[in-house]
């Protein structure tokens, strides 16, 4: 099948030449239908809807419109329903299903798939398990997009939505909102962001653009940016791992959220038990992804230094640097920038901002990451506290504010592994060739995992990476996944 993916037209703020040229290109192509991923109009006014509908009458292909945050301004969603159609819907073909849904919170830029829409999406996916190709569309971006400034307006529940799409084997998700074209493959899901097809609201001086997507054994995304075509191509089927007798290179134990203090938030029994198990696992490296102490107070750091005597690599979390922690962290724990061996090179990042939950890396550090990527070690890992990808079971608020640019660079530089420790829930996802693993809290009573407090073991073999989560108290193992390494 072949479809066109257009977005963010923002009527009436359009460049007419871009609109006409795109529509002509689509009309003259062999695409089956068009999907518009939202922000059809700019302020949700009647006149804007009338103008948009009038202009789209030139299109000679069927089109699905998905609502965007701008369509919902000034009670615009009512007009959207009257003029365009339902906010959620399904289009079915012999081999495919397209499910589109509303992610708009009226009069807000942030997005959300509501509880009822989430359940509806789940039921609809369950009802179409037999379809070879499953496509889901909504306006707000699912994962951070590069070159769009500060990361915000991401779906509140993007971690849960991502988890659902992966569980039901969705092949393709189409988003708009950020006005910058981007394509990622995350596990087996191809995530496509469209730029703005014709509005004046481009970023980085970027041109207007839209996507042509072709799906057979492969998913081919062609971004037409007038004068320039970018193409990405991915296998549709999941790659299999054959060589299970591969040589083991090293083992990392990844921990986070020990939250040491004198209160009962810190589960001392859990902590001591977990460390007994960690030493029995004989890791080559132990990495602590932040929130060592519950609050950055002297008494907590004194206690933490007593408990954490094993050689560990540390990065700070927001709890480590609040109050006096900013000065105490370097006094009690070594923060090194890199650790390099022939087999593996680690780069440790401080992503924390004083008295803020939101992380940042910044451009200077990004330059140092680029230098680090040129180190000749076989395997490269980046360690930081904040999340680069949304995590399930949590409202999305732990992302870096520059997550879009950082994620883009880390995948482009083919960093093998990224370790994070925010949001108190384990997660392991491969995006492009980079595996991103998040650790749950090891011994803090504030955690979101039904499996209980836990830490991760990451076994790196010559041909694959094997990640499991170990329950802090019982030591029982839950496999998070096995991923093939591309060498
Ligand atoms: Fe937009
Ligand atoms: Fe938008």
Q: Key terms for this structure?
A:
24 strands, Purple Acid Phosphatase, chain A, domain 2, 11 helices, 6-stranded mixed beta sheet, 487 residues, binds fe (ii) ion, 2 domains, alpha/beta
Give an overview of the whole structure.
It is a single chain. The protein has helices at 16-27, 46-56, 76-83, 115-126, 158-167, 268-280, 298-307, 318-321, 325-332, 363-372, 403-412, and strands at residues 2-6, 33-36, 63-65, 89-92, 96-100, 133-137, 172-175, 182-186, 189-193, 210-215, 218-224, 229-235, 248-255, 285-288, 313-314, 338-340, 344-348, 379-383, 417-420, 427-431, 434-438, 454-461, 464-471, 477-484. It is α/β, with parallel strands linked by helices. It has two domains: 2-235, Metallo-dependent phosphatases (Purple Acid Phosphatase, chain A, domain 2); 248-484, Metallo-dependent phosphatases (Purple Acid Phosphatase, chain A, domain 2), CATH 3.60.21. The strands form four sheets. A six-stranded mixed sheet has the order 3-2-1-10-11-12, with no helix packed on it. Strands 4-5-6-7-9-8 form a six-stranded mixed sheet, with helices on one face. A six-stranded mixed sheet has the order 15-14-13-22-23-24, with no helix packed on it. Helix 2 packs parallel to helix 3 and helix 7 (298-307) packs parallel to helix 9. The protein starts with a strand and ends with a strand. Bound molecules: fe (ii) ion (2 copies).
């Amino acid at each position: 099948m072949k479809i066109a993916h257009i977005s963010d037209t923002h009527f009436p703020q359009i460049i007419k030449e871009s609109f006409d040229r795109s529509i002509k290109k689509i009309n003259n192509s062999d695409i089956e239908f068009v999907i518009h991923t939202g922000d059809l109009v700019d302020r949700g006014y009647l006149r804007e809807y009338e103008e948009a509908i009038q202009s789209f009458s030139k299109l000679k292909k069927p089109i699905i419109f998905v609502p965007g945050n701008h369509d919902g301004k000034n009670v615009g969603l009512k007009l959207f329903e009257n003029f365009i159609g339902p906010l959620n819907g399904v289009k079915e073909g012999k081999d495919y299903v397209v499910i589109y849904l509303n992610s708009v919170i009226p009069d807000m830029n942030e997005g959300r798939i509501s509880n009822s829409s989430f359940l509806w999406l789940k039921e609809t996916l369950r009802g179409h398990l037999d379809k070879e190709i499953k496509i889901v569309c909504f306006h707000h971006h699912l994962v951070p997009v590069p070159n769009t400034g500060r990361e915000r307006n991401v779906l509140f529940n993007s971690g849960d939505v991502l988890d659902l799409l992966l569980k039901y084997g969705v092949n393709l998700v189409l988003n708009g909102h950020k006005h910058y074209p981007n394509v990622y493959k995350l596990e087996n899901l191809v995530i496509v962001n469209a730029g703005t097809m014709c509005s004046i609201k481009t970023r980085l001086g970027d041109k207007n653009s839209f996507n042509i997507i072709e799906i057979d054994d492969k998913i081919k995304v062609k971004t037409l940016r007038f004068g320039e075509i970018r193409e990405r191509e991915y296998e549709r089927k999941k790659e299999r791992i054959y060589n299970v007798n591969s040589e083991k290179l090293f083992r990392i134990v990844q921990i986070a959220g020990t939250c040491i203090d004198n209160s009962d938030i810190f589960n001392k029994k859990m902590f001591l038990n977990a460390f007994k198990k960690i030493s029995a696992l004989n890791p080559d490296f132990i990495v602590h992804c932040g929130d060592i102490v519950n609050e950055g107070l002297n008494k907590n750091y004194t206690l933490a230094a007593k408990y954490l005597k094993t050689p560990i690599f540390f990065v700070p979390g927001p709890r480590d640097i609040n109050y006096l922690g900013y000065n105490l962290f370097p006094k009690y724990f070594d923060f090194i920038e890199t650790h390099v061996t022939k087999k593996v090179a680690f780069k440790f990042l401080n992503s924390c901002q004083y008295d803020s939950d939101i992380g940042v890396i910044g451009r200077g550090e990004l330059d140092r990451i680029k230098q680090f990527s040129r180190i000749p070690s076989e395997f490269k890992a980046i360690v930081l506290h904040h999340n680069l990808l949304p995590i399930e079971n949590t409202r999305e608020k732990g992302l870096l504010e520059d997550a879009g640019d950082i994620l883009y660079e880390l995948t482009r530089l083919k960093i093998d592994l990224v370790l994070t420790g925010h949001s108190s829930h384990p997660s392991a996802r491969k995006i492009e060739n980079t595996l991103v693993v998040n650790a749950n809290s090891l011994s803090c009573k504030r955690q979101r995992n039904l499996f209980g407090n836990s830490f991760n073991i990451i076994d790196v073999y010559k041909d694959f990476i094997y990640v499991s989560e170990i329950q802090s108290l019982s030591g029982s193992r839950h496999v998070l996944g096995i991923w093939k390494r591309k060498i």
